[in-house]
């Protein structure tokens, strides 16, 4: 893919009209592909939207555009699974991992307060939180920041999943791709996330320091509320973070040697 033009194919689906008119978010996704693979990518995203556990959409938008920026290639974060027996244990594990990343306890508490406030607000993207002050700095309201322009070749991902002895599921592929892109920014401390998929209760804490730490339970089955918070350092212009997260094209590529070194 390095020698060909790359296109970003993105999908968003909602029920009750478009997101900006109050529609309930059903699904979203993105594929980076060569021109000849656009049709296959569109079909993949279409299947994802119409078979989602959050419901059947009545609005869908699929668009593609040529990626003009140079693509950065990253090795996937190292992965570890933390099996927990309860929601309380899961969140305590998340808190301990965030502390290990260097996030202060008061900032973690502010993150959980934001989680409680956003539970019924229809939050769609990520919240950016200043790791030192605990202040939200993205000013995006319910829209949040959508991490985008990223992908991982299916065959390469499947080989990685076999090596790691984990299921080669689309949810895992998308989560690690996103987490790796986020963690690669030098001014980002850590990320805490769980999905809005009611059938998927696994979440994670990720950073360059600790890798991708899956936590087997961060919400209850049937809960459609998701949450993503990214802990960032102080910078003069927060738009530099947002531009990286939303527009910097990133592809993951795994080689066996990646398992023996830091990403």
Brief overview:
The protein has helices at 38-50, 87-101, 105-118, 154-164, 170-183, 239-247; strands spanning 7-15, 24-33, 59-66, 72-74, 79-82, 127-130, 150-152, 188-194, 203-207, 211-215, 227-232, 250-252. It is α/β, with parallel strands linked by helices and 263 residues long. The longest helix is centred in the middle third of the chain and has 15 residues, at 87-101.
User: How many strands?
Assistant: 12
Structural class: alpha/beta
Largest sheet: 6 strands, mixed
Give the ordered list of helices and strands.
EEHEEEHHEEHHEEEEHE
The amount of helix comes to 25-40%
Give the overall form.
globular
Strands of the widest sheet, in order across it, are 5-10-9-8-11-6
Beta-strand content estimate: 25-35%
End-to-end C-alpha gap: 21 Å
Cofactor: Mg(2+)
Pfam families: BioW
Pathway: Metabolic intermediate metabolism; pimeloyl-CoA biosynthesis; pimeloyl-CoA from pimelate: step 1/1
Family: Belongs to the BioW family.
């Amino acid at each position: 893919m390095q020698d060909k033009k790359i296109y970003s194919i993105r999908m968003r689906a909602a029920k009750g009209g478009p997101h900006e008119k109050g529609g309930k978010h059903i699904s979203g996704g993105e594929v980076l592909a060569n021109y000849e693979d656009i049709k296959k990518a569109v079909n993949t995203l279409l299947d994802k939207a119409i078979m989602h556990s959050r419901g059947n959409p009545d609005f869908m938008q699929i668009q593609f555009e040529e990626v003009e920026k140079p693509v950065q290639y990253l090795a996937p974060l190292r992965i570890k699974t933390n099996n927990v027996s309860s929601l309380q244990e899961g969140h305590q594990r998340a808190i301990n991992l965030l502390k290990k990343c260097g996030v202060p306890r008061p900032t973690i508490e502010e993150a959980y307060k934001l989680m409680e406030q956003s539970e019924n607000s229809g939050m769609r993207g990520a919240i950016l939180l200043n790791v030192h002050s605990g202040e939200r700095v993205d000013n995006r309201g319910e829209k949040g920041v959508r991490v985008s322009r990223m992908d991982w070749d299916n065959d390469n991902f499947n080989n990685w999943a076999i090596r790691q002895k984990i299921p080669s599921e689309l949810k895992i592929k998308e989560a690690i791709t996103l987490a790796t892109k986020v963690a690669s920014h030098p001014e980002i401390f850590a990320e805490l996330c769980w999905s809005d998929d009611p059938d998927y209760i696994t979440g994670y804490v990720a950073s360059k320091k600790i890798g991708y730490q899956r936590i087997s339970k961060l919400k209850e089955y049937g809960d459609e509320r998701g949450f993503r918070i990214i802990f960032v350092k102080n910078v003069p212009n927060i738009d530099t973070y947002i531009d990286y997260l939303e527009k910097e094209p990133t592809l993951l590529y795994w080689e066996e040697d990646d398992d023996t070194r830091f990403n």
